[in-house]
Amino acid sequence: MRPEDVAQAFRAASRAELQALKPGNVHVFRPGHGMTAATFERAAEAAALPLATGATVGARIEGATLASLAAVGCNANLGIVLLCAPLSEAALTRRDGESLTDALDRVLGGLTLVDAEAAYRAIASANPGGLGASARQDVRAAPTVTLRGAMAQAADRDRIAAQYVTGFADVLASAQAYAAKTPGPAAVEDVFLDLLARLPDSHVARKFGPEAAESLRDEAAAFLAALPAEPEARRAALDAFDLDLKTRGLNPGTTADLTVAAVFAASLLQGV
Description:
Layout: H1 3-18, H2 37-53, H3 57-72, H4 78-93, H5 100-109, H6 113-126, H7 147-154, H8 159-166, H9 169-179, H10 185-198, H11 202-208, H12 210-226, H13 231-247, H14 253-270
């Protein structure tokens, strides 16, 4: 794939995620948590080219994050960038006969200390909610391990970090599920709800504790099991759940980040 193809796939995935009614998260149908969909649209547009043209994974992360911060003045897509940078590198460096999955494994295995330094600078600049301090590999200090090594140390408490250890297992499984559906908001909503029902959201856990994240996962699983198939009833149920979560201040932001990455990966798998 060419850099312009990857940039366009990233823009399209970001737009598709915002067009879906994702309970608790920001979308075009309802703002939330002091943000609107327009913020994320501008951030995605700013991040697209740096994400596709950086010389390394770390450069892609830092360039895209700083461009987004300059465009919107706040952290709108750090998690998305952390997920999509290795995927972009894999798509752009695939060798003859190499699958995207194999290319991604190669990219993750080749991450360096320099990648970690760039990613640490990006994370510290974005200062995501609930970041806090860490006794090991704090992003405000110089890293002493590769980017994958740093992610491994955070994998037990952060689902985005875990992707670097598992070869993006959650993202790729969701990408394949998305690719099997008819494209559109309902397909994106299905990916989001499936992830929310299976994986405690890291953003919720950082802000409210692991028990709150697990409770939300249980709620989402029950909601998904009872979700009506009829379009109008489905939309009403999604809207009510969305309003309820936003009223309680619960934003499953990591689940939304994984959803963007899954839609992006589906395009890369198809070479679109």
